[in-house]
Structures are given as C-alpha cells and as structure tokens.
Design a protein that fits this description.
homodimer; alpha/beta; Quinone Oxidoreductase, Chain A, domain 1; Rossmann fold; 9 helices; about 20% helix; NAD(P)-bd_dom_sf (chains A, B); ADH-like_C (chains A, B); ER (chains A, B); oxidoreductase (chains A, B)
Amino acid sequence: MASLPTESRQWQLARHPATYPKLEGSDATFEIAKVPLPALNEGEALLRTIFISNDPAARVWITGEKAKPREYVPPVKIGDKMRARSLSRVIGSKARKLPVGTVVLASGGWAEYFTAREDECIAIPQDSGYDLPHYLGTLGVTGLTAYYGLVEIVEAARDDVVVVSGAAGATGSTAVQVAKKIIGCKKVIGIAGTDDKCRFVEGLGADVCLNYKSPTFYEDLSRATEDLADIFFDNVGGDILDFMFTRLRQGGRIALCGSVSRYNNLSEKASFANFDNVITQRLKINGFVVLDYLHKLPTVIQIFQEAAKEGKIRVDDDSQTLVPAKFEEIPGVWLRLFEGRNQGKLVTKLLV
Amino acid sequence: MASLPTESRQWQLARHPATYPKLEGSDATFEIAKVPLPALNEGEALLRTIFISNDPAARVWITGEKAKPREYVPPVKIGDKMRARSLSRVIGSKARKLPVGTVVLASGGWAEYFTAREDECIAIPQDSGYDLPHYLGTLGVTGLTAYYGLVEIVEAARDDVVVVSGAAGATGSTAVQVAKKIIGCKKVIGIAGTDDKCRFVEGLGADVCLNYKSPTFYEDLSRATEDLADIFFDNVGGDILDFMFTRLRQGGRIALCGSVSRYNNLSEKASFANFDNVITQRLKINGFVVLDYLHKLPTVIQIFQEAAKEGKIRVDDDSQTLVPAKFEEIPGVWLRLFEGRNQGKLVTKLLV
C-alpha cells in the first residue's frame, strides 16, 4: 500500500466576483493552494475526491456579505476552500463505519484530498447497478430537491398542471419526471434554453417543452398554459418568474427553488411587472432550501431507485453531463452551469 | 310618504388615470351622471346611500386592462358607476327580507340611490350599540380582512412576532388589535407614516410602532426585529416589503394584503433588492383577497362584537375617520387614502 498523502491541493476563493466569475488574470476568482492534511482523530477518515457536484447556488456563497441575515449556509470567505458536495473514496480511516474503500457523499469541496468525521459522510452503495455520479444527481441531493419541492413544498397532485423552468438542468429535469411519472400530474410544461434541450425534456415525459430563447416564447407559454397552471417549479427567477405570475390560476403555488438567471448579478434588484398578481390571484410563493430535507435522502434514493427500475425515472448517461477534468480545470467545469452547457446533472470526474 | 326617486346621480369613471387620479379639469378621472332608476322587480329593493367605504384597492379597479388574467374583480370600465361598498337604507322594497327602513351592506358604489336584489344585501343590526359606519370597518369587511389574513392565511399564533405595515390604516389598525389582543401574539410591531399615527397604533396595543418617514426608520425596524419576525402582514408593498424580506426568520410568513404604495404607479415594476431571501430564508408569501372569505362575515362580526365588549378591540370614534361630504365631494374623500390623511377606516357620510 502506497503511503497516504499528507497534503492536498485545493481551490480557494481569491476574491468575491462582482458579476461573472473570472478564471484567469490578476482578478481571478479562485486560486490553488496546497494545505497540510491533519492527522486523523478517532472517528475520522481521509478521503480522495472522485466526483464533484456542480451547483448554481455555489455562485451565491461567494458573493460576499450583505447587510442582511443569512441563515442559509455561511458564505465562502476569501481564503476558504471552495465548498461543494462530492463523492470520495476512503483511503485512510480511524472510523469504524468507514472502512478503506468505502465511497461516501460528503461536502469535500474543490480538493484532491480532505478529512471528514464519519457523521459528515453518507456511504454510497457500490453494487446498485447505477454509476456512482448519479448519487450526486438524480439519486442524490438533486433528486431530493425535485421530489420534496414538488411533493412537500407545493403538494403537487394528479390534477395539477405544472410548469418547470430550467427543465433541462439537474433539478428541473428530475422535477419534470417526478411530476409526470411519479406523481402523474395532468400536464407538465418544461422551459429550457435550446431546441435540443427541449426535445430532451420532452423525452423525459414533459407534454411540451418551450425554448425561452425563441422569439415567440411568451406566446408559446401563454398557449401552453391556456387554462392557466396550478404550479410553477422555478429554478431560474427573473423574467420567466415575472411572466408566470400571470399564468397561474387563483391560489396557484410557486416552489422557489433557485434563481440562476440572477446569480451573476445579485446586486441588481429583482424587478417584476406582474408582482401585483400575487395578491389578485392569491398566489402562494414558497422559498425552500433542500438542506432542510437532507434527513430524507435515504428515503428518496429508495423511491428513485424503484422508479428507475419501473422505467419512470431515467438514471443513465443521458440524464447527466459527466465531464472528466484535471484538478486545474475544476472551476471552468462549474462555470458551464451559467453557459447553458449542461443537460441534466453536471458532474466533474476528477482525473488523477 | 314622499314619492320615491326615479333617477339618481352617480360618479362614473371618465378615463383611466395614468398615475394619480385627477379630481378636476379636462382630464378628470371621474364624472357625474344622472341615471334612471329601474322599476323594482320581485326580490329587489331601492336604496339610499348613507355611508360609503373608501378602499385603496379601488385604485386598481380603474387602472384599465392589462394583458394578463384578472380573476379578482372585474375592472371598472369607462362609463361604469364607480364601485364601492356602502351602507344604505331601504326606501322602497319588493323584497320580503328587506322591509323599508332596513340598513344593508351592499356594493352600492358612488351613487345617491341604487337598486339591488336581496341576495346582494346583508342586513345590519341597528340596535347593537355600535355606530353604523363601523360595519364598513372593524365590524365589516375590513375586520374580516385583518382577522382571516392573520388567522387563516398565515396562521398567526401566540409565539409569533408580527409586523404590520399601514398599521394606522383601516385593515392595519385592526390587524394590530387582532394580533395582540385576540390572538395574543408575543410581540406586535406597527409601521405608520406619522408620529401621531404611531402613538395611535401603540394605543391599540402594538408593542411599538415605527414611523417610516423617520430618517432612522430602517435602523429602528432592524432593532425592533432584532430576533427576526415570524409574520409580516403587509398592506403597503414596495420598499418596506423589500426590507422585510431581510427581517423574517427562516420559514417566515408574509400575508400580502395590499400594496398601497404602488397603486398610483402600477405600470412601474416592483423592484426588490432582497427577493433572493425568499429562497435562502424559506419565506412563504401568501397573496389573499378578502372576497374569498365574505361568507365568514357574520362569524367575524360576532367575534369582534364580543372582543369589543371585553375591551380587546376598539370600536369607537377614534378607530375610524368619518368624513361628512356632499355628493360632489365623494372622490376627494376617497383620495385622502393616498395622502395618509386617515386613521382607521375612512368612511364617507353622505350628506343629503
């Protein structure tokens, strides 16, 4: 057995980006640092990163403090390791529940190696028949977000007409399948950014998926929601959310999951022409954060594995975008999220 | 008995105001017309207006159509009688339940006389010991709005810290009393527009009331909500709503009752610097319209009469602003709503 590493490279936050994060130059957002790995205490393991989850919300964490209460997750400060969920393999262990070789889901961040306590790790089955990275996507926190957003936050039911934005993305593509195939909603309308993505979303079960870059998008969406929708599952915010205030029936429900259209311009105000409809149409807007439901992850993995067996949920190569990347390329892969370059969950496969 | 009138003067919408309604000149918003009163059919009554309710929402009804679904109440069209709830006295009747002399709550509008079917009228007790105009305010739809907004829409409970905007206004002043005296909420914070109004609101039971025109308002509100609030009952919208997105604890609830700060500028977008907090703080925004609860009016009148007897709710001269006015002055009295000139419910007493 080779000797264990005693230090690790990690990507740290170099400065808060004002708008779009920069990969290079004197004002680069991130920087590489080499840090020593602490000796393991009882109950701890040493882990090697194998797959990294790429999440739009991470853009919010690096924005810098604002003068308002933040009880979400603490911001990533300058000099901190960049935070991310990842799958990693135990290569050294003083934790009974984490023998060497175990693969775990943990918040390993953008690092080659890290240490963690066993209560910070969720062991992942390696014999399930599903490729590991799906445990960062449909069979992981992404699936949890889509499932609990629809089932608990807006209580979607069979009678409901559901609109999903960011429908080709990780959460959106899962939400489409949960709505149509697991809950059995009457009609599911996706919104995505290219015609190819729209066909992908329709392949997942959406009755129709509309390209928001089309010049006829708003007419198309009005037609698709001719009888008005019951639920809007929103990952995008901005103008699409604003328009949807006009396309929900009385008492319509909005699951506010994300606001990716704004993440690179958080200092700009969110402006809505139709916010008054929230009153006149008696809308219910529910912000939610999946962290509140992490204890339900094992349950949702079970539900999704069953659904996948029955062909209701796709857990395959097309339902994720897996990008092999060297350590140096980690930030660039993450930025693809904001370039509309992923279909399904965007996962970095860290090359050694 | 004098012969019954066969025609009535009424205020009609002359044109949609772009911003602030105009009382006079060639672009006046309203105009007086004389209309014949139809002969009574079986089940109908002829009514003489005695008190008119003044409501901010009426500003929305005269805005003109926008390209969005409106299922609230139909807009008032050009040439239509201006809509308003009023108390009126039956002066002619072919309705068994409405003998001459009965006082009713109905949607009589800005008219001296009108006819209505008996199912459009709610008879008001004349021997309750309360002055009649209170049945347009605390003992009427205003009270219903405050009560059901807090009790049903955001399920306020004793443990909750509640912030109420427009707290010296009709709905706000009642909401403050419902929260503090009927529900018994832990802390009630009012927001109003003058120091005098703030003292009035504190007299109603608010733990503190803050003047939003004070240069230290936002600091004051931050201090008053140091431990963050659970509920925001909002009548105002705009910058105060925006700031409150930062002053609610995780899972905080907003009852979106009105948006009076915007009613004269509805074509401007609603802009929020802190809308992202709806996600990060898992806020629940609930738009509501009291019309959905009109069937509960008798119940709430009962609750409020009981509460008034126990000294929990003020139903007196100070809890309303009663303005005697000639027919010609009706629009001008209504506009006081937008000038911050009323305390409690603003009621027009129509002089004959």
